[in-house]
Amino acid sequence: MTYSISGFMNVWNVKSQGYPFIEAIESALPACDEFLISDGFSTDGTWEELLKLQKKHTKIKIYREKWILDKKTPQLSLADSANKVKKKCKGDYILYVQANEIIHEKSIQEIKKLPEIYPTTELFNLPFYIIFGINMLDHTEYRTRFAKNIRYVNVIQDAWTLGYSYKNYMNRFNITMAFFIKQIISNFNKPSELKKLFSMIVMTLVKIGFTDTYRVQFINLENPIYRYSSLTPEAMIKKLEGHGLFWNASVNSKLESQNKIKEFLGSKHKVSLNLSKTREVAIEIYKKDKKNFWKKMSEYYKKNDAYALGDIKKQFKTIPIEKHPKIMQKLLKEC
User: Fold this and answer.
1) Each residue of 47-67: pLDDT tens digit?
2) How many domains, in total, are found in the chain?
């Protein structure tokens, strides 16, 4: 059986921030039957580059959708903008790619075969290399970026991953339970039928529950997806400035409350770096010692950054450029 795959991405002024968005799109195209991109009315030439790319590749479809950012809950706003383009995807499966993520050419066929290998799986967690600077491995992690194209799977949190939409998931739950209630009422005087129904209800609750594992798979690709945080010092400083617009005091306050709950439950969790302070440090290093910018910034991160998703240790291990995706190697040598 063949399956169609829709890739999608949402962007806004990624050209000026140094994102390798063209390489990211082209690296994903071989895995996709279509690739949808939503631009948030960029003003830095991003849209013009997308128009050129669309002429080059017939799989690409581009849209413009204004980003409406809620200062109090920017995480949800970013996810909403990504879900607008996700809803336009027509494939049986969706592949969510961000503008600085490159799929290694050796992993394309592995991704395309996943629906055949795991036909009942709804969410696929793919391995990522998080690259600091040009070629330093910051850390590794899994992100849910490949999934069945179903209504209750959406971009969630601060748009960093795919997951189950609570609203649509509960809607599915309510519809299922309404069906069983109707069946119970109609078979109220039939003990044998009621026994079967209650058995079905228990099994359905297990399957609908968030803890069932048959619908979620962790995949070990031959080569992880490469996510390049920033390729130049200038891009990193610009990115820190942009992130600072979203991570305001209101959001940080909510995160601290969540962290206290996690700490109470026995989960180690520390607050991420202060972005304004980190930007100041980056600017200072850039002015005084641009040549050793990445080395000194890596030392700063290793000392100060407790990664927000768990006890993932910063590695800062150099990966030879020839090990990176081929589509990135020329660009990396020029940086």
Assistant:
1) 999 999 999 999 999 999 888
2) 3
Same domain for 19 and 160? yes
Please check the confidence at residue 280 and state whether its pLDDT lies above 80. yes
> Of the candidates 147, 93, 111, 83, which has an alpha carbon nearest to the alpha carbon of residue 27?
111
Beta bridge partners of 140: 129
Residues 63 and 111 in one domain: yes
3-state secondary structure at position 278: helix
Question: Whole-model pTM above 0.90?
Answer: no
Q: Do residues 156 and 242 share a domain?
A: no
Would you say 163 and 152 are in contact if contact means Cβ atoms under 8 Å apart?
A: no
Nearest by Cα to 318 from 136, 132, 133: 136
For the chain, give the number of residues: 335
Mark whether 15 and 163 lie in a shared domain: yes
Is residue 129 located within the same domain as residue 187? no
> Residues near 197 by Cβ (< 8 Å), separated by ≥ 6?
180, 183, 184, 187
Tokens of 199: 């058995």
Compute the distance between CA of residue 321 and CA of residue 181 in angstroms, rounded to an integer: 60
Summarised one tens digit per residue, pLDDT across range 186-213 is 777 887 777 766 766 666 665 555 444 4
CB atoms near residue 65 (< 10 Å): 16
Per-residue 3-state assignment (H helix, E strand, C coil) for 148-186: ECCCCEEEECCCCEEEECHHHHHHHHHHHHHHHHHHHHH
Range of the domain at 109: 5-167+212-228
**CA gap 327, 22 in Å, rounded:** 10
Same domain as 163, residue 42: yes
